Records
---
Amino acid sequence: MTRRRVPLLLAALVLLLAGCTSTSDDEPGPPRSGRWQPTPGQQWQWQLSGRLDPDVDVPVYDIDGFDHPASTIADLHRRGRKVICYLSTGAWEDWRPDAGKFPGTVLGHGNGWKGERWLDIRRTDVLGPLMATRLDMCRDKGFDAVEPDNMDGYTNRTGFPLTADDQLRYNRLIARLAHERGLAVGLKNDLDQIPQLLDDFDFAVNEQCAEHEECPALSPFIEAGKAVFHVEYELGTREFCPLAKRLRLSSMLKRYDLGVWRKPC
């Protein structure tokens, strides 16, 4: 009897401790085993427009979460790829199928891209359930990870008085929602908050850190054994690849349309 009861008591203790774990928006979620962890130096393809080319010989693909069915992700998996689900979590896009579910009160100024407006990330009561549903979609389609975009609204003219604390709280919420679904999650840009968010995110995605002389700020991810997926648009590979290789970034040159074309380091 004693040997049968010990495992039950241990199980009860585990459940009790799990119930005490904080799940507030601004606290890191509990660590979870089995989640994909991309490592420094892995090559990748980022394609958000045009007909998807599944034949690029890289281990990681980053594609639009809405635009592709589960069969596409399954095909990439058969080819040995890990697949990242691109979502805009900090801006509203008027062409998405759930666009009508966002109340006008959370829509701010345009973010410079046609049909997109910044979101009031303080309204986690509204945005939390909407983003949870989007992340359900990524999980259900079989994605391995998520790239949440527009995660630095507090540094932009959004139409809302967003603060750094607002951004930290929202970014941690998105990370926790992703982790609860077994998805790895990347920190998109938001370089200034890397020290606070490093433990919450599994990798980073960055645009133009070489052009803006910011790449060393991403080193904490590399030092933690986490990949930094990086693109440049304006610089030639001769200008940024030596630095990228020295920092162990996963870097390539892309065009702004993020189609098939790529020139890796």
---
Amino acid sequence: MKFHSNGKLLITGEYAVLDGAKGLALPTKQGQSLEVKNNNSNKLNWKSLDEAGELWFEGNFEFAAGNFKLLNEGNEVGKRLEKLLQEAHQLNPEIFNEQQGFDVVTRLDFNRDWGLGTSSTLVNNLANWFKIDAYRLLKKTFGGSGYDIAAAQHKQPITYQITSSGPSILKTDFNPGFSNEIFFVYLNEKKNSRNAIKHYRELPQSNKNGLIDKTSALTQQFIACETLTEFELLINVHETLIAKTLQLPKIKQVRFSDFPGAIKSLGAWGGDFILVTGNKEEVFQYFNQKGFHTIFEYNKLIF
């Protein structure tokens, strides 16, 4: 058995999507695969390979009396995976029994420091293997809004919104005619999204008044906009709105004030990727000079 899930970038609605704002999510062409083969033991042997095919994690799990036990003590990645497997098993106990074992190999298409969804693609792949609801598995383990699970399951831009009846996921025709002037730049540091969410949750409610409606309206405007000039204006409006909410300065203001194009933070502010606009040659020259060498053209990363 083999499964594959797509990575993700959240273009609008960061933070606010947790409270019901509509966000625009773009699945990435790069993701993660999971391959499962039966073996003749009651053990699960797990190997995780990075984008270069190098082993970055290896763990062995024993399965007995309905429980997984990590045999490699002191391994934090292994302990998180043990919890994932245990929660998946509780949601569907039919996959594992004590007379059955598996060899599992995961393969990333992207660098796991990039924040494109190492965890969400794993959760979605595991949910597919165990034939369970990926959103339920996410809620029982990593938490978060779930937009990354939606992205893992789609191959085109989507809007994502948490509603009283569950996630609302709609395919959208977001395909800007100026996509050759949109780029994604990695800031050379991975941001801890759990810490970022904790900071947002602890903000006073007065900071968030009107945030959901304003962010949802901006998402629709992003989808509908037809010119780069309008797109850049919307970026600046969105950045101002989130900066005011978080009481944090904009990334452009702090680090790239002399850049002529627009810059938007993506996901947890201060790390992972930013979206930038401009001429290809100028974008690459500017960010390379500042030490940022992981730069993607829109159409090479996004479906």
